[in-house]
Amino acid sequence: MQARKKRILADLLAHLPSARRGWVLAPLFGISLFGVVAATATTPDSPPPFPLQTVVERLPVAPTAADAGSGLPFVHDERVLPGDTIESIFRRLNVSDPEALAFLLGTDEGRTALRQLRSGRAVTALVEPDGRLRALSLPITQASGRFSIERTAEGLQIRGEETQALATVVEMRSGVIQHSLFGATDAAGLPDSVATKLAEIFGTEINFHTDLRRGDSFSVVYETLYDQGSPSRTGKILAAEFVNRGERHVVVLFRGDDGREQYYTADGRSLRQAFLRSPLEFSRVTSGFGRRLHPIHRNWRTHAGVDFAAPIGTPIKATSDGTVSFVGTQRGYGNIIIVQHRDRYSTAYAHLNGFARGLRKGQRVNQGDVIGYVGKTGWATGPHLHYEIRVNNVPHDPMRIALPAAQPLTKGELAKFNEQTSPLVARIALLNRSTVAALR
Question: Which region is the signal sequence (predicted)?
Fold first, then answer.
C-alpha cells in the first residue's frame, strides 16, 4: 500500500507545472524538518531508539624501552628515605657500579657526604644503559649543600660541594576537628611537624588534652621548602587560628627590630612567658627551696634554690632573655652560670658539668638557648641542677614566685607589627571563607 502511494505521488509531481511543484514540495520539506526536530527533542532520561553495543578494541602500545645502543644515559630523580644507605639508593636508581660505590665509601669526602644525607632531599643521577654511573648529586648538611661526582676520561672525580638555595613556598591549610587534632590535620594534608608546632604554639591558650571539642576548627599559614621542585621539609608557621569552644585564637609570627621572631596574638600580645618554670625539659625536683639538712655537711642550712635531678650532660636552657654576668666556678656551687634579666631579676645554674661552647661574660642569651650541661661539680652528691631565681640578688622560691609577664610591644613596634602581620591575618580570613563555603 505504501509503495503504491509513493508511486502515485511521484506520477502526480511529474505531471505538474514547475511553478506548482515548489508549492507542493515546500510543505513536504516542512513536514520532514518538523519530523527531525521531533526526533531530536527527546528527554535525556529516555532510552535511545536504537540498541547500544559496547565495542572494546585493543590498541597496540608503542615500546618504551630505550635503545641501549644509543649511549644516552637515563636521568633519575629520587628522594632520600629515612634509614637509606647508598646501596639502597643505588638500587632505586638502577645503578650497578661497584667502582662508583667503592669510590664513595673509600674516600674521606665520600664518607663524609654519606654521613650527612638528609631525608626528604633530592638525589639526581645520570645512569648509563648498562648501569654505570655517569654523574651523581647527593644532598648533604643541614642547609642546602650538595656533594657531586662525575665520570670523566680520567675516571670518577669529585666535583666538590655546592650550595643550592631551597625555594620557599607559602602554603595554607584548614580543617575541622572530628575525633582528634592529628586526625584532622592528616585529613587536611598538614605535615606532622606543622601539626606538632601548632599544638605547641596554642599550648598556652588551649589544653589539647581536655579542651578539644568536635567541631573545633583550625587554619594555618606555613612555609614549605622545596628542593628541585619537590617538598624537602617544612619551615616556619607564619600565622594560625584555632577556634575552640566557639572562642577564636589567632597568632602571627613577628620579627622585631633585633631580628628575633616571636608569636603574638592578633592585637600584639606576646604568647611567650617571661620566664620558664624549669630550665630542663624532663626532670624531677629532688630538693625544694628552704631550710634542709645539708647532705654533705649534715647540718641544717637554707637551700636557696631548687634541685632538678637529671643525667650528666643534660642540656640546660636559659629561662629568660638576659646577659651572662658570670660564668666560672664558685666554691660549693661548682661550675655556675649567672644570667642578669630585666627588672632586677637574675637566675643561677650550678653544679654544671660544662658550659655551652663560646659562652662568656657579657654575652646576650635568649629564652630557651642551651647555656650549659648538668653535672655534679661543687658540693653535690649526685648529678643534678641547682637553680635559683634572685630579685635584687636575694633568692626566691622558683616554684612559687610570681614571675613578670612578657614585655609588650612599644607604640613604634606595634605600628610595624600591624604592617607586617596584616597580610597574614588576611590569609587566615581567606581560609575561613573557604572553610565556610566547603561546609555549606
Answer: none
Domain with 316, as residue range(s), is 284-396
pLDDT of res. 361: 92
Is residue 40 domain-resident? Answer: no
pLDDT digits (tens, 9 = 90+) for 314-332: 899 998 889 999 999 988 8
Residue 305 and residue 379 share a domain: yes
425 and 359 in one domain? no
Other Cβ atoms less than 10 A from the Cβ of 89: the count is 21
- Of the spans 134-148, 203-217, 255-269, 307-321, which averages the highest pLDDT? 307-321
303 within a domain of the structure (yes/no): yes
Domain boundary among 132, 163, 194: 163
CATH number at residue 333: 2.70.70.10
Q: What is the pTM of this model?
A: 0.50
User: Does one domain contain both 180 and 267?
Assistant: yes
Helix extents (H) in 16-123: 18-40, 86-92, 98-106, 108-115
d(CA 71, CA 48): 57
Residue 37 has pLDDT above 70, yes or no: no
- Give residue 354's identity as a one-letter amino acid code: G
Nearest Cα to Cα of residue 373 among 337, 340, 347, 398: 337
C-alpha–C-alpha distance, residues 58 and 43, integer Å: 34
User: 150 Cβ partners below 8 Å, 6+ apart?
Assistant: 134, 135, 136, 156, 157, 159
Round to whole Å and give the CA distance between 109 and 156: 13
Q: What is the predicted pLDDT for the residue at 26?
A: 47
Q: What is the DSSP string of 226-272?
A: EETTEEEEEEEEEEEEEEETTEEEEEEEEE-TTS-EEEEETTS-B-S
Write out pLDDT tens, residues 256-305.
777 778 888 888 877 777 777 778 865 555 565 555 545 554 555 656 78
Calculate ∠ Cα 296-300-303, nearest 5°. 80
pLDDT at 47: 65
Q: Do 361 and 341 reside in the same domain of the chain?
A: yes
Is 3's pLDDT higher than 50? no
Whether residue 260 lies inside any domain: the answer is yes
Q: Which of 391, 374, 405, 427 is nearest to 171 (CA)?
A: 427
d(CA 396, CA 346): 10
